[in-house]
Specification:
Layout lengths: L3 H29 L18 H8 L13 E5 L5 H11 L3 E5 L23 H12 L4 E5 L6 H13 L10 E4 L4 H14 L3 E6 L5 E7 L12 H6 L17 H20 L7 E5 L19 H16 L22
Helix pairs in contact: 3-4, 3-8, 5-6
The structure holds zinc ion.
Length: 340
Amino acid sequence: MATVEELKLRVRELENELIKCKQKQCAMEDALHRPKIDKMSAEVVDSNPYSRLMALKRMGIVDDYEKIRTYTVAVVGVGGVGSVTAEMLTRCGIGKLLLFDYDKVELANMNRLFFQPHQAGLSKVEAAEHTLRNINPDVSFETHNYNITTMDNFTHFMDRISRGGLEEGMPVDLVLSCVDNFEARMAINTACNELGQIWMESGVSENAVSGHIQLIIPGETACFACAPPLVVAANIDEKTLKREGVCAASLPTTMGVVAGILVQNVLKYLLKFGTVSYYLGYNAMQDFFPTMAMKANPQCNDRHCRKQQEEYKKKEAERPKVEVIEVEEEVVHEDNEWGE
Ligand SMILES: [Zn+2]
């Protein structure tokens, strides 16, 4: 029988072999990838992956589309909403993505978009990075396969949010919550309040027919502890957000819609076009999209939220008052968008 020492040695040998295999596989995949593109071009040729995005400039929607490459977004939760969100941002050419999730891909996920049956058993962040890198090698990826709510991981999570930007040491530009439970939302909320980090919340109801997104600017708009959005919007008991042992329903449609309105809001926020929504709900039963804005609650339980509110008030008081002159907009009947 082999001794423990011999077995340890064998494990080490096998580990090294695995690393070699992985490196070989990566090199093979790299050879299949298109080369990285240094500068986004607006040239209209079939081989340019950015021509349709750069056309947003020509259409007068975005001033400087290429700026998207300077931004870093953290996606927490790479499930039904998070994975599609990450894919959209990757295809749009975001600078860097940080992905956080501790789950594995399962066949029970196949009613949603993004993951494929052959990825079952892989960690969601690993499978996602692999697919996304293949779609757009220009994007930088950083993945963390852990639960952000445990103490050590939470500290590490905070550190990566505040230092994991495109330029190491700089904070990320935006954190997106795509998680499915109250505890993880509260952890993101706590971290962002402490860091003064702007973030967006998203959620889909357990019965799969409603969802929402929300922009949270610490100190300025209501944080998740000031008023949990799902509870406020749908007037449902917070405990029904995710009940233990209850198999939640999910639809690729609702998840896709929520990911779509989330990333739309991200693009509008980062590239400065259109109106950024503070809260946008989606009720699939009635096709109803409620919007609203909620101010931060001075009695919020989170002390960092209250501190951020004080700072925001101070900043607002110091800001020179600009007189707003309202000009009534003339109604012009433009040619419609369909060119008819
Ligand atoms: Zn608050």
